[in-house]
Amino acid sequence: MIETAGALPVTPPPAPRAVRRPVVLVGLMGAGKTTVGRKLAQMLDLPFVDTDHEIEDASRMTIADLFATYGEAEFRALEARVVARLLDDGPRVIATGGGAYMNEGTRRLLAERSITVWLNAELDVLMERVAKRPTRPLLQTSDPRATLKALMDQRYPVYAQADLQVQTRNVKREAVAREILDLLQRHPLFKAGA
Ligand SMILES: Nc1ncnc2c1ncn2[C@@H]1O[C@H](COP(=O)(O)OP(=O)(O)OP(=O)(O)O)[C@@H](O)[C@H]1O
Ligand SMILES: O=C(O)C1=C[C@@H](O)[C@@H](O)[C@H](O)C1
Ligand SMILES: [Mg+2]
Question: Binding of substrate: at which residues (predicted)?
């Protein structure tokens, strides 16, 4: 038995409150949703799921092949259904495909049922990262940098509607995940145990 000075009972520290809503990462290709999401899930002790990987596993096709075979519109419809279904599976960290948050219905659903986090990154950082896997169908253009810049202009005002935002420039993936964790712990939805 541990002796304590005096007779005062020792109050144990409060257990960290578990997040009850899914935490959903949004942002452009190369922002780090998949890599940071996996780390964050470890830190929160939650399952991790990536919508692109779910879609590839379920269809047994790569995203590039899905785009080529069925077109972008079909892919988007499938993506919206996958995000909606994943929200029914309980708390987890969900990395979305870069375009998922652009769907208005998906945004509404995510606002009601999740905590969304935008991984914001500058063009140079994104270009460097997407170069590691040059198969992304939307970047199969004569000028991928200009394409990515156009996507930034179109999407950043929409991503900015997310509940939380982190800047990922020059920050290691662990540090990005820790920053999200800090922001989450201060977020009213997290504090309320929602
Ligand atoms: N904070 C970081 N620091 C350094 N490298 C990173 C960081 N985050 C991600 N990366 C690297 O950048 C590349 C793209 O990251 P990742 O695949 O996680 O992006 P994504 O947002 O999931 O993109 P997509 O929408 O195409 O799935 C990977 O090679 C990953 O290792
Ligand atoms: O930004 C996008 O629209 C995309 C991002 C990837 O995650 C994939 O979902 C697909 O390549 C489309
Ligand atoms: Mg990804």
Answer: 52, 76, 98, 155
